[in-house]
Design brief:
CATH superfamily of the largest domain: Putative cyclase
Strand order of the largest sheet: 1-15-13-7-9-11-12-4-14
Distance between the termini: 32 Å
Number of strands: 15
Number of helices: 10
CATH topology of the largest domain: Glucose Oxidase, domain 1
Largest sheet: 9 strands, mixed
Strand content: 15-25%
Radius of gyration: 21 Å
CATH architecture of the largest domain: 3-Layer(bba) Sandwich
């Protein structure tokens, strides 16, 4: 497939990132929409009725974990000092069998600890993760939101009870790619998303309060060929032209099987993650990255059902700007 002029590419000026970002920030702003004190952003769209709708989608009881493994064999290579999770035992069966008794009457046990950047594997970006010109979500000053002690306003713990509802898989890799995958550098436009819904059937339409999963197939390729530059390198992903779609659909969150959610290299020379710069501080969108959508996608393709109950609460690390998650899709 020719990726130089993807379907419905739009008319962004590739030479002026600053202008494009500024204009999209105004068009797609949710600042003040839910009041000056709001900390939930697009999760406001995910209400109780939407959770009931999601629960009603459980038909077979089949459950899929959408998390990658949290271990030292992950893709991280040190960018921004991110490493793969390091897991260490504090006590083990060796201690129980050969060491001095820790507890009375023969009781033994094992205990462990993990060190990891909170965005080392499958995770949500919180609303304090990205700023635009020193401003955080809802027009707040970045320095007053995230301090050396963490996110004092929109810490990821504020989202812990909210992210469960109707999930929808948009398998763009299968719908418009070749052999079920999109090549690195492929920019997914709104027309690609609409074409995917059309290919999958009207039941996979997305709207207010939905949790949308976009499969590109890059994770399948990385598992087959090796991690390579999966963490930070070239990747298929959402085009900057999807900013208005993300805002207009009123979805609650969107997650992908890639490291960075948006297409890389980015569509503007010299830019870095311009869609993040609009989506998080202006739309207030929750973004998930490095989700494992492979097994779920196979099942959806087999039975033709692409919506399900999705429960994806982040680990409520107080003040964190992102957190690990083990998302569960239940069909």
């Amino acid at each position: 497939m020719d990726t130089s002029l993807p379907l419905g590419f739009g008319s962004i000026d590739h030479g002026d990132a600053e202008k494009a970002i500024a204009e999209a920030a105004v068009r797609c702003s949710n600042e003040g929409r839910w009041g000056a004190d709001d900390v939930l952003g697009t999760l406001n769209f995910l209400d109780d009725a939407k959770r009931v709708q999601g629960a009603a989608l459980v038909r077979r009881g089949r459950s899929f974990s959408l998390a990658q493994r949290f271990d030292q064999d992950g893709p991280q290579k040190g960018w921004r000092r991110r490493c793969n999770p390091v897991h260490t035992m504090l006590s083990s069966g060796l201690d129980a069998e050969f060491g001095p008794a820790e507890f009375p009457h023969g009781l033994g046990g094992a205990d462990d600890v993990v060190f990891m950047p909170l965005q080392a594997s499958t995770q949500w970006d919180g609303l304090g993760h990205i700023f635009d010109h020193g401003r955080a979500y809802n027009g707040r000053r970045a320095s007053e939101v995230v301090t050396s002690e963490g996110d004092q306003v929109t810490g990821i713990e504020t989202a812990a009870a909210h992210i469960a509802g109707r999930g929808v898989l948009l398998d763009v890799g299968r719908a418009v790619g070749e052999n079920g995958e999109l090549p690195d550098g492929f920019a997914i436009t709104p027309d690609h998303l609409r074409a995917t819904v059309e290919a999958q059937g009207v039941a996979s339409s997305v709207g207010r309060g939905d949790l949308v999963l976009v499969r590109t197939g890059q994770l399948a390729r990385a598992r087959r060929d090796g991690w390579g530059d999966y963490a930070g390198g070239a990747a298929p992903g959402l085009s900057f032209t999807t900013a208005d779609w993300l805002h207009g659909t009123e979805i609650a969150g969107l997650a992908t099987d890639t490291w960075g959610f948006e297409v890389r290299p980015n569509e503007f020379p010299g830019a870095f993650q311009p869609l993040h710069q609009v989506a998080i501080p202006h739309i207030g969108l929750f973004i998930g990255e490095m989700w494992d959508l492979e097994e779920l996608a196979e099942d959806c393709a087999a039975d033709g059902v692409y919506d399900f109950l999705l429960a994806a609460a982040p680990l409520p690390v107080t003040g964190a700007v992102g957190a690990p998650v083990n998302p569960l899709a239940i069909k």
